[in-house]
Amino acid sequence: MSKQNTNVSQASAAILQEQKQIRREQFFSNPGMVVGLIIFALIVLSAIFIPMFNGVDPNKMDVINRLKPPSLEHLMGTDEFGRDLLTRVLYGARSSLGVGCSVALLSCLFGTIIGIYASYFKVLDMVLMRICEGLTAIPGVLLAIALMAALGASNTNVIIALTIVYTPSVARVVRSSALVTKGQTFVEAAKVQGASSGRILWKLILPNVISPLTVQASYIFAQAIISEASLSFLGAGIPAPAASWGNILQASKSVLQKAPWTVIFPGAAVILCVLSLNLLGDGLRDYLDPRTAGRKK
Amino acid sequence: MREPLLEIKNLQKKYPIYGPLGKLFPPKTYHKAVSNMNLKLYEGETYGLVGESGCGKSTTGRSILGLVQPDSGEILYKGKDLTKLSDAEFRPLRRDLQMVFQDTLSSLNPRQRIGQLLEEPMIIQGMGDANERRQKVLDILKMVGLAEDHYFRYPHELSGGQVQRLGIARALIIDPKLIVCDEPVSALDVSIQSQILNMLTSLQKEMNLSLLFISHDIGVVRYISNRIGVMYLGSLVEEAETDELFANTLHPYTQALFASIPDFKKKERKVSLSGELPVYTDEFKGCVFHTRCPHACDKCRECAPELKEVIPGHKVACHLVK
């Protein structure tokens, strides 16, 4: 028995090696995903580390130097209170990414639970999907503003409001791909073996829902950043003086013509971040499916 | 008289037919996919179920495993009626009853490696510890002619024949008594078909399995089965041992079916059937085959014949056979 097992482990080591190799090639053969990953990683790393080391207070005002164009001292210039724009954009990245990430994770968590149960139990499906439809009937930003008005402006409440806005769309995506998976023969095969519905739901259906879910997650991450920016822009988001990409843009709109850099830099940050996330999500969808992974070699 | 391993009694399954507005209104009528199906399966035998598409052979096979909930009738296994068991009561019996699917690749989870796939049924049934299960997987891989290093492969990395072997391996791994094979070779080319069939028969002898072999391919069924049941429109029209059935074909449908086997020696075909299966509703009267039967008489259009034993071991449902 032990001899057989060593044989297997030798052969298997080679196969696992080969499969890893294919995965690696697959990863790098997808330039969009690699570029997306690099840009996103740069944004995240600089948002975490640069403010830690350069020690500039994002709220320190310097009224004499207000609305200065980009220079060596202030790489992105200063805003109308003379605050260093680079520092504010980086702090803004922290709150925007924090909101985006929490919203993406939370709405995927709730959306997946709702979607998977809805796909499997008919009565639950009726109830849950009607609620989700009701929520999606209201335009997202409007719903978020209404929720913010009810909850009050704070960082946590932005996350709660946006999670409520995005959960239904995740639930729908998960439900529809779970329904497709549920109709496949391997689910029947599992029933023949005697698998319980819990096992079928979480061990068979969930893994096959992951790839559309990943795309949806990256899309929601990006959308949440934009929505948070719009909420802050409308004054219903993260309250000043804390920096977020949205409220930097909002504060800058009155000085747009005098100091365009106050809009260009945070705007570019939003665009770059959303773009990289979308590239990443698209790439991950292909990468996470073992069938396409096998075929591409 | 031998005790049957599995007995199907008066099985019936209807599917609704809706009007033009779909499910808004109650169904117009019902199509009987399986009606009055009776079947006995003995230990160690291969029972071939043949019939054209839509005659209810798959529905019969699937209801044995609880994948289709029949409307009425009994499926007796070890004295228990499988149609009335709850999931939890059925679970221990599933060790004895397994299934090989037609499209095997889609019956395998694409995200599991072959080792995990084969281990899964044992985990569900709570058999052995991790080491024993692994050993069992390796044994079964060898038994069905796959290599040990397939253990870490994904199903999509295998060829069609290998996938079918894997499907059979998965059905065998928990030592079942009965395997329902739903068109297991119809997706394979002929040389692979015979390999798989030979493997099935030798494994069957080795493990004393009973097979319910569902197929539309008479050649395949003739090759593998001890007994054959010919199904038409939801019920058996003829049933006999393989040699007897081919030597002494009684039912007009079976005759037509056998005549449809392509034969290079004879240029002309004697009997050929035209048209398709009719919709079998409650209003349908008479023998199931009368709409297409070349010998149909008034009696056939009025009342349905019963499945009678005309020669020992040979049952036919036809008014014309005395």
Q: Would you mind describing this structure in some detail?
A:
The complex is a heterodimer of chains A (297) and B (322). The mean pLDDT of chain A is 85. Chain A has a single domain, classed as MetI-like (MetI-like fold), CATH 1.10.3720.10. Helix content of chain A is 77%, strand content 0%. Chain A is mostly helical and 297 residues long. Chain B folds into 2 domains: 6-96 and 176-275, Rossmann fold; 110-174, no CATH class. In chain B, the strands form 2 sheets. In chain B, strands 6-7-8-3-9-10-12-11 form an 8-stranded mixed sheet, sandwiched between helices. The mean pLDDT of chain B is 88.
CATH class of the largest domain in chain B reads Alpha Beta
Largest interface: A-B, 32 and 38 residues
Describe the sheet with the most strands of chain A.
none
Distance between the termini of chain A: 35 Å
Shape category of chain A: flat
DSSP strand content of chain B: 15-25%
Count, helices of chain B? 10
Q: Radius of gyration of chain B over alpha carbons?
A: 21 Å
Beta-sheet strand percentage of chain A?
A: under 5%
- Overall pLDDT metric of chain B: 88
Secondary structure category of chain B:
alpha/beta
Features:
heterodimer, A: 297 residues, mainly alpha, MetI-like fold, 0% strand, flat, B: 322 residues, alpha/beta, Rossmann fold, eight-stranded mixed sheet, four-stranded antiparallel sheet
